[in-house]
């Protein structure tokens, strides 16, 4: 690691830093989606049973003690249950739109890292080549060609590092965006189900 930093210079430090940030974001998002997916199945089953018995206070308590996108929607629906169904549906849809930012949290940062990592690598290569040619110029035309080759090979390390960081970042970014879109569609499909469970006036 220290050798890579020495060869790549300060740009390599930035590449390593953004790679660590990307890794943290990916792990955090995967854990978050796994947790809310597992919680959702259990909670929906509990809430259905509770609502079918018209135990609305108990259902509200379940929602408040287990905050996640689906329970937040359910809480809004329960609180608006005395209104006509179309009002309940609108309230739940509005709540669903407020849940989207929490699902998309950090994804813009991950997308940015995926795009700037190869650019950082290219920048490191350019600055490394400038240094390499500067050294060659100092020695003149009779300088050792091996010195130039060594400088260029070291400069290319940052490009390779930038691409290595960018590829998994792009893959996980696309995967997580797709997962968010799927979850948003699933939440929208839950709206009618929630309205039916809550009953209410037409």
What does this structure look like?
There is one protein chain. Helices cover 88% and strands 0% of the residues. It has helices at residues 2-8, 10-52, 56-65, 69-79, 85-103, 107-139, 145-198. It is rod-shaped. It is mainly α and 202 residues long. It has one domain (2-198).
Q: How are the SSEs placed, and which strands pair?
A:
Elements: H1 2-8, H2 10-52, H3 56-65, H4 69-79, H5 85-103, H6 107-139, H7 145-198
Helix pairs in contact: 1-2, 2-3, 2-6, 2-7, 3-4, 4-5, 4-7, 5-7, 6-7
Quick synopsis:
This protein has 202 residues and is mostly helical.
The rounded Rg comes to 27 Å
Helical region count? 7
Would you tell me the overall average pLDDT?
A: 81
Q: List low-pLDDT spans.
A: none
Q: How many β-strand runs?
A: 0
Q: Any idea how many domains?
A: 1
Taken as a percent bin, the fraction of beta residues is under 5%
- Our measurement of the CA-to-CA distance between the termini, rounded to an integer number of angstroms, reads 66 Å
The major β-sheet equals: none
Helical proportion, percent range = over 70%
